[in-house]
Amino acid sequence: LSDVPPSHPRYASLLTREKLVEGVERGITGLNGLIAQGRGEALDYLLGEVTTPPAEEAERAAAALLLLAERPVLSVNGNAAALVPREMVDLARKIGAPLEVNIFYRTEERVRRIADHLRSFGAEEVFGETPDASVPGLDHARGKASRGGIFDADVVFVPLEDGDRCEALVRMGKRVVTVDLNPLSRTARTSTVTIVDNVVRALPNLISLVGEMGGQREAELREIVASYDNRAVLRRSVEAMVSHLSRQFSTFEE
Length: 254
Ligand code: PTJ
Description:
This protein is an alpha/beta fold.
């Protein structure tokens, strides 16, 4: 990271910014991705920049859903490609899922660059460059999808997804897992499992959970999914933000 020492208190956050700037320079991340990251950072600050207990619970349910899925697909946009490319490829390999480049501000050039970027990390199956289907209810560019990929998936992992597109996937009968630092976003409220955590923490957590839970019996995984309540988890995520903020404030008052 240019000239910032690892001892800097905001090193992790600065490193994340740098990765996105590099993503923009390489034509992987859209300029809007920088704005989205700014919003994410502010929300992460409210959480205390840690994986909270409700986020951990969501990550466990997400791992169970992905392990149980018959046709899971991991969707990658410009922000995920810049921040967690290696982890997305690793998770895909661990659960035997393809990746699909699925971007909101679509240009064919950026789709190709993201796909190449994922392949440079060893991705074997990357959909998205030649979409041959569309998600009902979305305009042409936003709805592009691939048969064998997102279009046919039963479980879709879509970190940092737009609300409209998330709703459209749910309407198709898919189970949707998202990562979104905003517990109040439409995506957060619509998804089957919403992980309110930074994608840079959520991905490593998911990879270890999938490894850990891979040996569990199917009935146990089903029980984790059945007892999961996304609304309650979102409420606890909001409460985690509120209590973190008031704890922080009381340390100033002392
Ligand atoms: O590459 P593209 O064209 O697909 O564009 C990707 C972005 C993210 C720009 C696009 O999907 C977009 O505009 O997303 P939104 O509607 O801004 O939503 C992104 C959500 O992700 C917001 O609720 C942010 O708070 C949240 N977010 C941003 N950064 C992170 C995050 N959540 C988790 N980890 C982050 N690092």
